[in-house]
Amino acid sequence: MNTKCDFDFEAFDFQKMNGLLPAVVQASSDGEVLMVGFMNREALQQTLERGYVTFFSRTRNQLWMKGESSGNRLRVVTAHTDCDRDTLLLRVEVEGAGLVCHRGTRSCFTESVLRPETASPRNDAPEKESR
Amino acid sequence: MNTKCDFDFEAFDFQKMNGLLPAVVQASSDGEVLMVGFMNREALQQTLERGYVTFFSRTRNQLWMKGESSGNRLRVVTAHTDCDRDTLLLRVEVEGAGLVCHRGTRSCFTESVLRPETASPRNDAPEKESR
After folding, report:
1. Do A83 and B110 touch (CB under 8 A)?
2. Judging by beta carbons within 10 Å of its beta carbon (0-12, 13-18, 19+), is residue A99 exposed, middle or buried?
3. CA dihedral of residues B7, B9, B11, B15 (deg, nearest 10)
4. Rounded CA gap, B93 and A59, in Å?
5. pTM above 0.90?
6. Which of A42, A65, A124, B37 would staple B55 via disulfide (CB 3.0–4.6 Å)?
7. Which helix (H) or strand (E) holds B91?
């Protein structure tokens, strides 16, 4: 077991999602939710050992350290699990240009699914009038 | 289709998780991540139509409006999807006592998985010295 994790890995519920935990990545500076990825046990161990977020890619079936090639790596500031121990919340600092999404935005969550009249002023994604 | 959703439901990728999308729930007031649940198409439609977060319970195999009995309902302020359209981010106002977790805390993410020496000052979860 790695030395930075003060948590029994057996306590995580990897069963519920066939060996994976959803991991929410949040900017520690301002709380913006940047993305959600998935970690198997190995990805979580590597994340905690190295201090940088590593996911398990469901499509490529392999580990990938987020930002390893682009430089926009996610340095772990805090890591928490929830009451069911089946989900992770990682607060991070984004290195490099600070852009997490492959589309060139800071966060992956840029598309609103609500009509403008039901959204609050904080909803700053571009909206269409109707569809 | 409901009238509040300015988004084609066919565009969501429900396939990747057997009909479910992970949904991150974040407090709109201060950005605290409160919980993660899962939505099938029906749960998402109900959430957008009623304006309150409704999940699909994987263990009970049914819809449940979060806080319907406790009063701690989650009123949707904004709703976004990500670049892959396989995840949701819902910013909410928590009604009632404002406690989202069944353990009586505001957020479900209360257990740190990092040792104190590697965590930032923002990590305020109780820590053990060693294990």
Report:
1. yes
2. middle
3. 150
4. 35
5. no
6. B37
7. strand B88-94
